[in-house]
Design brief:
about 120 residues, alpha+beta, GMP Synthetase, Chain A, domain 3, 3-stranded mixed β-sheet, 4 helices
């Protein structure tokens, strides 16, 4: 049951998109931690692509709302952690592919090199 709830939470997170980049917050690597307790309380630690992101507070609320709708979730707490800052190294493989489609493979590879990714 816990694995099923976990997958449903991730699916819900993948419906929330960064409003400037058009990649979902999970694959963009903005979700840093997910914890689910036995009572259905969900704790999420997330970041924004920039501390000055104009849509950061809205995305945070969108994450909370999306997860709250998952059957079996009783409560949601979302905490924003801006330090360390987000890096392209946090992209999932799907996120990387999406970014390559948006910005081009060479650009994304350069960002990853500059960020120290392998």
């Amino acid at each position: 049951m816990a694995d099923d709830l976990w997958e449903k939470i991730i699916d819900a997170l993948k419906t929330v998109y960064d409003l400037e980049i058009s990649v979902n917050v999970y694959d963009l690597g903005l979700i840093r931690e997910i914890r689910v307790d036995d009572d259905g309380k969900v704790y999420i630690k997330m970041t924004w692509t920039s501390p000055m992101c104009p849509y950061g507070p809205l995305m945070t609320k969108m994450v909370e709302d999306a997860v709250r709708k998952v059957p079996g979730v009783k409560d949601v707490e979302v905490v924003v952690e801006l330090d360390p800052p987000w890096s392209p190294k946090e992209l999932t493989e799907d996120g990387r592919r999406q970014m390559e489609m948006l910005f081009g493979k060479e650009t994304v590879e350069r960002w990853l090199r500059e960020a120290g990714a392998k």
